[in-house]
Amino acid sequence: MPSAAVIVVTTRALAMHGEENLAKHVENVRLFGIPPVVALNRFTDDTDAAVSAVASSCRALGVPFGVSRGWELGGAGVTDLAGMVLDAIRSSDRSAFRYLYPDELGLAAKLETIAKRVYGADGVAFAPLAATKLSRFESLGHGRLPVCVAKTQNSLSDDPKRPGRPRGFTITVRDAALSAGAGFVVAYAGDILTMPGLPKVPGAEEIDIDERGNVVGLF
């Protein structure tokens, strides 16, 4: 059970998406009963006024705010932020952690829960292919698995051209895949390129260096 979550932001991203997008991410973390901390990854061209504006937004949201300059100053650039995260961990109530949906909820209902509560959608539309596959996965005994949504990272919706906190939209699930070994179902929304998934025991665990300094376990 996580004790806290850090939401990393930049002034550039906030300029494109606005404060309401940050507010939704804070809301989403709190959906799970986890205290959020906002970390601003500050770049050299970020003005003090821009940083102050982010800090003000965080105060309005009631969320701790810290600046990360680790790339520039090393550990000294994240010391204050680390302290805020530790404070959040110490003050968190781990018994408050909760999942978004119960295991026994159907796969389609799980996706609708994510779409409505996390993305802010009005609902979900299932393409025939996706609906057929989800039904088949359940008939094979995989209905209790959690679901993972593959969609654009540029929007809370499945449309990359809708920044901020879009409203009045529907998530369209066009396809689905079963990752039985890893233990989840993937739903594909919009035009998205996915990378191959990893097994529960990745091959990297077999890689080592022997006594002669040779790398072993690569193949």
Polypeptide structure, described:
It contains seven helices and nine strands, in the order βααβαβαααβαβββββ. Strand 6 (170-179) and strand 7 form a beta hairpin. The chain is of the alpha/beta class and 219 residues long. The mean pLDDT is 94. The strands form three sheets. Strands 4-6-7-5 form a four-stranded mixed β-sheet. A three-stranded parallel β-sheet has the order 1-2-3, sandwiched between helices. The protein has a two-stranded antiparallel ribbon with strand order 8-9. It is globular. 35% of the residues lie in helices and 20% in strands.
Taking pLDDT < 50 over at least 5 consecutive residues as the criterion, the unreliable ranges are none
Shape: globular
Strands, total number: 9
Mean residue pLDDT: 94
Percentage beta strand: 15-25%
Write the topology of this structure.
Layout: E1 5-9, H1 11-17, H2 19-31, E2 36-41, H3 48-61, E3 65-68, H4 70-73, H5 79-91, H6 107-119, E4 123-126, H7 128-139, E5 147-150, E6 170-179, E7 184-189, E8 208-209, E9 215-216
Parallel strand pairs: 1-2, 2-3, 4-6, 5-7
Antiparallel strand pairs: 6-7, 8-9
Task: Provide a compact summary of the structure.
This protein is α/β, with parallel strands linked by helices and 219 residues long. The protein is built from 7 helices and 9 strands, in the order βααβαβαααβαβββββ. The strands form 3 sheets. Strands 4-6-7-5 form a 4-stranded mixed β-sheet. Strands 1-2-3 form a 3-stranded parallel β-sheet, with helices on both faces. The protein has a two-stranded antiparallel sheet with strand order 8-9.
